[in-house]
């Protein structure tokens, strides 16, 4: 029992560093979501019928895709399209 607490105590700096990285990623995703979501919501409510239908299709398409398919699309499609090289361990 004591060995478990000792192991957790030794790993605490790594856990705290990982927690800070996670909080940073959540903050960045939240900011990016607001930057993309607010104009889309305004466009869907106050935009023309074409814009509202286009935004509705976008939302329908990305809601319907499984998360794993989205991850594959971004990793193999977007990164190769932009010429970015991301190691597999980092992507995981």
Provide structural commentary.
The model has no long low-confidence stretch (mean pLDDT about 90). The chain has a domain at about 45-90. It has helices spanning about 1-45, 50-65, 65-80, 90. By secondary structure, it is an all-alpha fold. The longest helix has about 45 residues, at about 1-45.
How would you summarize the topology of this molecule?
Elements: H1 2-46, H2 49-64, H3 67-82, H4 88-91
Helix pairs in contact: 1-2
Termini Cα gap: 32 Å
Low-confidence blocks of residues: none
* Total E-strand runs: 0
Outline type:
elongated
- Please state the structural category: mainly alpha
Throw out a few tags for this protein.
92 residues; mainly alpha; 88% helix; elongated
What's this, in brief?
The chain is an all-alpha fold and 92 residues long. The protein has 4 helices and no strands.
